[in-house]
């Protein structure tokens, strides 16, 4: 099993963690929600 490497991605000066899994980008949902301004309700 291969370990995925976290790749930082900048979106509007905020960092979104990404991983490459089987050559496909996967984004950390918590980071995407924070960038978009979503919060727990």
UniProtKB/TrEMBL annotation:
Domain called Bro-N: residue spans: 15-40
Taxonomic superkingdom: Bacteria
Entries under Pfam families matching the protein: Bro-N
Protein name: Prophage antirepressor-like protein
């Amino acid at each position: 099993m291969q370990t995925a490497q976290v790749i930082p991605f900048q979106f509007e000066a905020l960092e979104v963690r990404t991983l490459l899994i089987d050559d496909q980008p996967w984004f950390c949902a918590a980071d995407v929600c924070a960038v978009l301004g979503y919060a727990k309700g």
